[in-house]
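Input record (one chain):
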Amino acid sequence: MSHRSVDIVEGFEALEGQEVRIAGRIMTRRVMGKASFLHMADRDGQIQSYVRKDAIGEESYDEFKHYDIGDIIGIAGVVFKTQKGEISVKAKEVVLVSKSLQILPEKYHGLKDTDTRYRQRYLDLIVNPEVKETFFKRSQIIKEIRTFLDNKEFLEVETPVLTAVPGGAAARPFDTHHNALDLPMHLRISLELPLKRLIVGGFERVYEIGRVFRNEGLSVRHNPEFTLLELYQAYTDYYGMMDITESLIRTVAEKVLGKTTVDYDGIEIDLGKPFERLTMVDAIRKYADIDFDMIETDEDARALAKEKNVEIEKHFKKGEIINAFFEEFAEEHLIQPTSSWIIRLRFHLLPRESLKIRLIRSVSSSSSPAVSSPMHSRSSTILSIREAVSSIRKNFVQPVMRKRIKSMRTFLWRLSMVCPNRWTGNRY
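The corresponding structure, as predicted from the sequence alone:
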């Protein structure tokens, strides 16, 4: 293969009349006796090809007529423009590269079923070019994040995925077992603690872009595994981290999109202007007219939650209740997610005791002050802003899905196991 479709379309003036070799999947074809037209798709787009019986030979043309939509073929031919003005390749040779044994969705309705699109992402990528574009953009975003941080003298590191004690976040881990050591292990739920230990060890600026795993529910906002960015630097505070985060998002937008404005669900978000900065307490005061600075005890906070009908757990303390009030009253007003910065003051949201002891032991080993501030970001969340998508699953090549129920009979049988007094398999 000498050229891709985009190379031929954009460089037509230089390539007109020149011989090229292209390859791709047949998306449409029109067989008309001794001549045929087809559109073939490669990584970057589609291009038309004109195939004549007298140009490729009778035997090859007879084979070509039996090709199907979805087959991958290679074509050698000359670049030209049709009478209707469409840039095309006049075939001199056609070769079948790979036969498609499954029928692609028909052209006009495409693939619309959401469940099928997520379970068979390869099919979604074939028939919906905009989905492929999403993953190209995701790759570009991560590349530009790395470039930005490397230029700021941050060191990228890799920390263990398996850990003896999960920590750094309030989440349920996935459990496994190390056979050689006969030791229970967990998949990490955060990147935080190993990175902080590196700060203690003398690395003044570190970051990691890695996969984390949380054994929790599925929704349009949650996937059990996702890519997380965490960075830490010494000798700064959270104001410095806010500055670097704003600069990071703004720079990535300029590099990937070529602009700092993004249309999200009909609303224009301007990433070029300074972000608004609020504490959680200020945001609650602004949007709910409730001042948590006047609430002194956990009991008072619980009483206020009961009065305002905010759902909380029995063990919640003041900091967790503040978070609940923020999600209930303030979050919905932050329509532009990048224009308002929320400083999360987490009272009582600390790691479990064993983790606190290990972290204190690490900090006590420090020979110089190492004031570190974290910055957390999910690449899929940044991408959601760019793509204006309603579900975070659209940003995963293969999102986790519930087990498919193959038939209504199976569904009713499972339901009868949950509610035996109400549903019985014999009734259906």
